[in-house]
Write a structure and sequence with these properties.
Layout lengths: L5 E3 L9 E4 L1 H10 L7 E5 L4 E10 L4 E10 L7 E7 L5 H12 L1 E8 L9 H18 L6 E2 L3 E2 H4 L9 E4 L6 E2 H10 L9 E6 L7 H9 L3 E4 L7 H17 L1
Length: 250
């Protein structure tokens, strides 16, 4: 089965009936995918629109297409998952962004915990956004996940946003598996209620400190575990997201 070819153009750059391609998307179109006039492509704008576009002109610096159809929220879930992840060292957070965007995360919150060793700078923020753009194009999503500014754990806990449920990865005695935790929460739903959003907290490889866990629990976060093996931080984030989205959407 042939998959649609997706390109990303920010919503503010799209006219009423046509789209102009410049820069990296133009280069990808002409050098990598080698498109020609009269080819049909798909363009996503990051805010929920998927445009079916007929390419009309391709010159040495830009290309132009006519919008033939607009579809809303292609590839999106009705459930909005936020992943608050302690930033691993090196480039491993990039893997979290890539794979969890594919899995359906709506918002990423980079966390700086007591055991976090990573420093965040503006260069990384720009690169992180580019990674999520590439991921929505690859998997056919139409909404670009939000990447919040990095926050300390204590500052993050001051956030007043309301979620349908809040979970924290922490293998304490008595903590249930993530799937069991979600099943228990779902049993409390009535036949007409549905989850709208939720949040998962994933710590660094050294784990959250006891003080951080206590603070999270005082803010109604429920601990869960991911089995008997110790996972890398990025693995835990990806696995948690996959389990969550599978169970909520099923």
């Amino acid at each position: 089965m042939k998959h649609n070819e997706y390109y990303y153009i920010p919503a503010e750059q799209i006219e009423d009936d046509h789209i102009i391609f410049k820069g990296s998307e133009y280069k990808h179109m002409t050098i990598v995918t080698r498109k020609n006039p009269r080819d049909i492509i798909h363009v996503v704008d990051g805010v929920g629109n998927d445009y079916t576009v007929l390419l009309t002109d391709i010159d040495k610096k830009s290309a132009r297409g006519i919008i033939q159809k607009r579809t809303r929220y292609t590839g999106e879930s009705n459930f909005k998952l936020t992943l608050a992840q302690a930033v691993p060292r090196g480039s491993r957070f990039e893997l979290v962004l890539e794979k969890c965007t594919e899995l359906g995360v709506s918002e990423f919150i980079p966390l700086i915990t007591e055991n976090t060793m990573m420093k965040i700078n503006e260069t990384k923020n720009k690169r992180w956004k580019n990674i999520t753009i590439a991921s929505i194009k690859q998997c056919g999503r139409s909404v670009l996940p939000q990447i919040s500014q990095a926050k300390s754990f204590n500052d993050f806990m001051q956030d007043s946003k309301i979620y349908d449920f809040k979970l924290i990865a922490h293998p304490e005695t008595g903590a249930k598996s993530l799937s069991k935790s979600i099943s228990d929460i779902k049993k409390k739903l009535t036949s007409i209620t549905r989850f709208k959003n939720g949040i998962i907290l994933v710590g660094p490889e050294a784990g959250f400190t006891l003080a951080e866990v206590a603070l999270a629990k005082s803010n109604l976060y429920i601990p869960f575990n991911l089995g008997n093996r110790r996972l890398r931080s990025e693995t835990a984030g990806i696995v948690s997201t996959a389990i969550m989205m599978e169970m909520i959407e099923s």
